[in-house]
Amino acid sequence: AILGSSLMASTVFATSDWDAEDDYTAVWTRQQAENVALTKDTTAPLLETDEDFDLVAPDKWVWDTWPLQNRDGSLAQVNGYTIAFALVAPRDLGWGERHTEARIGMFYSKDGKDWTYAGIPYDYDKAYGHMQWAGSAMLDKDGKVHFFYTATGRKDNSEYFDQSGWEPMAEQRLAKTTFDISADKDGVHLTKEDEHQIMLEADGEYYETLGQWGSNGNIISAFRDPFFFQDPNTGEEYIIWEGQAGPKSNGLKPENIGDEAYRKNANVPDRAELYNGNIGIAKVLDEDVSELKMLPPLLESIGVNHQLERPHVVVEDDTYYLLTISHTFTYAPGLTGPEGLYGFVNEGGLRGDYEPLNDGGLVIGNPAESPGQAYSWWVAPDGQVISFINEPLDENGEVQFVGTFAPTLQLSFDGDQTKIEKEMGYGEIRPFGAYR
Ligand code: FRU
Known about the structure:
This protein is mainly beta. Helices cover 3% and strands 41% of the residues.
């Protein structure tokens, strides 16, 4: 990467070998993914499960969580409150069924430790999708909350599980609305809900549509989890998301496998090509974040892993960290790795030749003694990582379904290496600066 192209006399912009709008997609290869390993720096501390967990919303399953951020990525504070959004579903639904009735709930806190559940802040009838899945939330300078989410399925087609499995209701589109926000002694309020809008749909070229989906054991096709990102070095804004490689990616290519020497002996099992995750990106063209220009994916994991979920970006000076979550069951045949947070690093810009962190890409993995204990890690600009308690094993080795905020972890980054520094409180979010 080249450094130091200066566009304004006083500002030095970092530049990568590629511009964000270029047609260059980094690759997470099978060769790299073979190095995925739990080490002392990447293994999450084992959760104590001999006590009952305090549930942040006792009658709700709570999972994917994201805080309200300012436009520059820093943590928003409104009259001294920290605000977070999370997927919620009634606890009397089965654990597995929660995805099919997911909504987005709001939480607020005065100290970033004790959270109050404030309900679902939008009118379900106005929202797109039979379900609302993960997204992000940004507070602009005029006090508008931009509320980005995944519209999954359609309200006029709520038969989720029919003969063909997930397909009819698995359609995912990126959507948004806006609100005004206020806070007083009674808590935080979102008002003046705007019309909802579909921002983006899979194009069938760079991003696979449901119709193009080649079933790999019913792991559905993704076009979800919009994350708003303002590049601190250029001021440009983007939405990034979890996608599935479309026809333009040309399927499983030699470069998805590894270098020439590796390829000589590599055995790529049948159907590996059906595991075709990617990280999508669009450029934001207006202040309202309602006009977007779709761009080629930032990264693909064809032949490696089907899901690069909830992708997000953290920047330190001119080093870009692209972070995502993934599962054991979504690895392509012949590869494996823990339920975890994965990450990639590029010098000099948002698009580039991302290399996996810690050799293979694993940043935080669940401990082998409790492989499902947490999921959906999300890294704040200062390296604190929130997640939720998922399926930890109890003392008898039985899986528990929990669904509440997990202990926050503090992560440090040093070039292409990361380290879990410490464990913080359950759901704790310390005020964070724009950049570490
Ligand atoms: C990650 C995830 C997201 C999706 C949500 C649906 O945990 O799969 O990608 O938005 O859960 O429940």
